[in-house]
């Protein structure tokens, strides 16, 4: 009956204040509970076999065994419990975070103000939804049974915690307004006419998903690629470098006026919107500080809208794992203009949010498993027309 148990979280941070603040966020969310805390990686490793968490929230900078050392030992021991990094904004923090992803961490969340963030509640919603996404996937795949504090199996092992203090998370969710238009009848569309540009929109689960896609991508890809990955400023440059090291393509963080060249992948900088402009010899990109769209900057909708206007039926747009609906509206515009549209399938998504909205609205030509995404893209960009 694991589906009736809350997802169990192990919080690993050397700061007692951070452990308590993060635990209050987790315990205050429906369906989640903190099964244990650890002040460093060594204690976390000792607690995993007993507590059997569904997910580990991990700090990087800790005494005795830091986050990187923990991930190396986790890999050596074959521990599969997903790990989400709580990272600081510093440049060195970005480099270490990318190293953590290389070592098997599933994702990361940026602490708002450094390693000890009394305002960690600012990213409380993100923590909760990320834990739910990765923890649920692990539970489905393994049938894991965590040592939940209020379950019969744990009653004699650990004390029941005091009721968590109220949080703003539920209030925030209740105030959200769903303003996305209702599904419409399938629209008339232009005919596709080959592909000159590939645009990708992705969010939660994106760092590792993109690693898999670009590691497998044909190094002779005949079109340029522009990617919107929801990621904070200060991390996208290191993320682009990490992709460049594993891909046969050139991957870089986009700069104002960068050329759209075949085989070049431009990663949108954190906290910037990106638009494309088609020119006679080579397209270019433009960056801006315009207001967030769908709560995001960068926004996939901003990119897709410009792709529809500039490339129309000569574009390939891909919407992948992510919370919410960013990109789902304007991938519909690309579809109406005759562009080819792909969505990652539900099974391989960490969060089937953005793709689901686009699929439900009839905007998607192909639903593709993550492991097939690179091959499907390679086949479509070489098709003289639709390539369905």
TrEMBL record:
Catalysis: reaction(s): L-glutaminyl-[protein] + H2O = L-glutamyl-[protein] + NH4(+); [protein]-L-glutamate 5-O-methyl ester + H2O = L-glutamyl-[protein] + methanol + H(+)
Database matches in PROSITE patterns: CHEB, RESPONSE_REGULATORY
Sequence positions bearing 4-aspartylphosphate: 59
Residue ranges constituting the Response regulatory domain according to the UniProt record: 8-126
Alphabetical list of InterPro entries matching this protein: CheB-like, CheB_C, CheY-like_superfamily, Sig_transdc_resp-reg_Me-estase, Sig_transdc_resp-reg_receiver
GO cellular component terms, semicolon-separated: cytoplasm
GO biological process terms on file: chemotaxis
Domain CheB-type methylesterase intervals: 191-384
SMART domains linked to this entry: REC
Catalytic site positions: 203, 230, 326
EC number(s) given by UniProt: 3.1.1.61, 3.5.1.44
Coarse class of the protein's main subcellular location: cytoplasm
Molecular function GO terms recorded: phosphorelay response regulator activity; protein-glutamate methylesterase activity; protein-glutamine glutaminase activity
Top-level division of the source organism's lineage: Bacteria
Major enzyme class: hydrolase
Family note: Belongs to the CheB family.
Domain remarks in the Swiss-Prot or TrEMBL record: Contains a C-terminal catalytic domain, and an N-terminal region which modulates catalytic activity.
Biological role: Involved in chemotaxis. Part of a chemotaxis signal transduction system that modulates chemotaxis in response to various stimuli. Catalyzes the demethylation of specific methylglutamate residues introduced into the chemoreceptors (methyl-accepting chemotaxis proteins or MCP) by CheR. Also mediates the irreversible deamidation of specific glutamine residues to glutamic acid.
Protein name, entry field: Protein-glutamate methylesterase/protein-glutamine glutaminase
């Amino acid at each position: 009956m694991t589906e009736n148990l809350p997802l169990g979280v192990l919080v690993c941070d050397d700061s007692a204040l951070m452990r308590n603040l993060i635990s209050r966020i987790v315990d205050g969310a429906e369906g989640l509970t903190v099964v244990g805390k650890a002040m460093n990686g060594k204690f976390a490793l000792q607690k995993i076999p007993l507590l059997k968490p569904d997910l580990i929230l991990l700090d990087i900078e800790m005494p005795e065994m830091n986050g990187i050392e923990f991930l190396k030992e986790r890999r050596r021991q074959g521990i599969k419990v997903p790990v989400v990094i709580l990272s600081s904004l510093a440049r060195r923090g970005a480099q270490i975070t990318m190293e953590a992803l290389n070592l098997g961490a599933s994702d990361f969340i940026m602490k708002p103000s450094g390693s000890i963030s009394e305002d960690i509640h600012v990213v409380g919603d993100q923590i909760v939804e990320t834990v739910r996404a990765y923890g649920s996937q692990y539970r489905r795949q393994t049938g894991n049974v965590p040592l939940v504090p209020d379950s019969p199996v744990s009653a004699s092992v650990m004390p029941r915690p005091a009721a968590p203090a109220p949080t703003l998370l539920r209030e925030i969710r209740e105030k959200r307004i769903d303003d996305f238009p209702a599904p419409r009848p399938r629209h008339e569309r232009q005919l596709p006419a080959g592909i000159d540009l590939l645009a990708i929109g992705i969010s939660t689960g994106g760092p590792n998903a993109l690693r898999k896609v670009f590691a497998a991508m044909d190094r002779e890809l005949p079109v340029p690629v522009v990617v919107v990955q929801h990621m904070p400023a200060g991390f996208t440059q290191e993320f682009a470098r990490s992709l460049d090291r594993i891909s046969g393509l050139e991957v870089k963080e986009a700069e104002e006026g960068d050329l759209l060249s075949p085989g070049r992948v431009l990663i949108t900088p954190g906290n910037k919107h990106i638009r494309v402009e088609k020119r006679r010899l080579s397209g270019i990109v433009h960056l801006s500080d315009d207001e967030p769209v769908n709560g995001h900057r960068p926004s996939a909708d901003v990119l897709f809208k410009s792709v529809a206007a500039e490339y129309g039926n000569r574009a390939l747009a891909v919407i992948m794992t992510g919370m919410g609906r960013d990109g789902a509206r304007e991938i519909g515009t690309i579809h109406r203009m005759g562009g080819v549209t792909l969505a990652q399938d539900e099974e391989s998504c960490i969060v089937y949010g953005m793709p689901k909205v686009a699929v439900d609205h009839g905007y998607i030509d192909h639903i593709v498993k993550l492991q097939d995404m690179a091959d499907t893209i390679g086949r479509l960009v070489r098709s003289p027309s639709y390539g369905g």
